[in-house]
Specification:
By secondary structure, the chain is α/β, with parallel strands linked by helices. The chain folds into two domains: 28-284, Aspartate Aminotransferase, domain 2 (3-Layer(aba) Sandwich), CATH 3.40.640; 296-425, Aspartate Aminotransferase, domain 1 (Alpha-Beta Complex). 39% of the residues lie in helices and 14% in strands. The protein has helices at 2-6, 28-40, 53-69, 83-102, 117-126, 144-150, 173-183, 243-246, 272-311, 338-347, 373-389, 414-425, and strands spanning 76-80, 108-112, 129-133, 155-161, 186-191, 220-223, 236-240, 251-253, 261-263, 315-317, 325-330, 353-355, 360-364. The strands form three sheets. A seven-stranded mixed β-sheet has the order 1-7-6-5-4-2-3, sandwiched between helices. Residues 399-407 have low confidence and may be disordered. Bound molecules: pyridoxal-5'-phosphate (PLP). Pyridoxal-5'-phosphate is lined by residues 82-84, 116, 118, 161, 164-165, 190, 192-193, 224, 236. Keywords: Endoplasmic reticulum, Lipid metabolism, Lyase, Membrane, Pyridoxal phosphate, Sphingolipid metabolism, Transmembrane, Transmembrane helix. Its EC number is 4.1.2.27. Its cofactor is pyridoxal 5'-phosphate. It comes from Ganoderma sinense ZZ0214-1. It is found in: Endoplasmic reticulum membrane.
Amino acid sequence: MAKMDEEGGHHVNWKDGRVSGAVYHGGEDMQKVIVAAFERYCVSNPLHPDVFPAVRKMEAEIVAMCLKMYNNPNGAGVTTSGGTESIIMAVKTYRDWARVTKGITEPEMIIPISAHAAFDKGAEYMGIKVHTIPVNPETRQVDIKRVRRAINPNTMLLVGSAVNFPDGCQDDIVALGKLASKHKIGLHVDCCLGSFIMPFLEEAGFSVQPFDFRVEGVTSISCDTHKYGFAPKGNSVVMYKDAQLRRFQYYVNPDWTGGVYASPSIAGSRPGALIAGTWAAMQYMGHSGYLESCKSIVTAAKTIAHRIRTEVTELRVLGNPPASVVAFAAAPGSSLNVLEVGDKMSKRGWHLNAVTNPAAVHIAVTRLTVPVVDQLIADLKDAIGEAKLSPSGNGTMMTLYGLGQSSPVGPTMVGHVAEAFLDTLYKA
Ligand SMILES: Cc1ncc(COP(=O)(O)O)c(C=O)c1O
């Protein structure tokens, strides 16, 4: 197994910084801190706080630190296994809240087309109807007028991202907050990807639009400690405006034969080691560490955006991304197929993400990307030259989320291929 990781072959080497997102820190020092925490809390389980009191305290402190970062020190939250679970839990919370407080039995939610697939997943699991609203093609922000028109008596929740996955742009959270307040419904801001970048932008000297609990109408926020918080994979935080709203997330069964059962989120037993690893990573980084990482990562992302805008006329940057993600599509009037450029980048060792509406390629800058920005731009120019010189006519870069690599499969087959792909993951 170790050889599979070390010896190259077809897999991508994440350590050289050419992978979009996926591994957010990768430093030896951080790895040692996390492993030390794992070792000490290897078998711990927060389902039993009486047996593992330190794990309970660490989880509470992770949540408290995130609430402080997002300017709601008196709010409430829980840790989960990742951004997707945080979002699914929020959807469940609003479903139960809407039923109890508003009598809504056929709940609906309104999400931007740029919102993460986890919202659709949560809605499918929880039986919620979803209205998907387009974004403004220039700003990439959700069309507020259309959100307003979609609101009806069954609406329980609005969603905005800060920032979204496809193009790294931020919705107009203030406008969404006004709508949510007016209609007395929830507004969830997805800061899973924005995580430990968004809250530090202002102090780092970058401009940023309001996005946190200070915005009137924001009732919950998801923040992934396992992205720019540099925690080990498997940790995220979902935060609520107050403890009362969090109650709707809990599952409590007082009549179970095995005893009174109460758990905060989907899992029963949970890995205390991940909580310890997350807590250790956060202590190790501290405010100043996160501030510095925000400065270097966002400077790199803004450099990429600026250099594409000024040096690469065949491409255009989507919207005005405020944080760490930059997406680029073919410039208006250009015959360039951007997915083909993505293919050529893959050949040069890059693992970028292909996104749709419009076809574009994105990179989520991590600490590993910071030193290879010049190489990215050079390779991009090279890849465009090659794509123009020998256009195949169809970029085959896979838009299957999480794969992001070349594949000869067209979009119509993607659904079947995605299922087959998942099957394959379990072939021993
Ligand atoms: C904006 C956004 N929300 C949610 C998620 C889901 O996070 P996870 O993959 O940790 O479940 C992601 C992941 O990339 C994301 O970018």
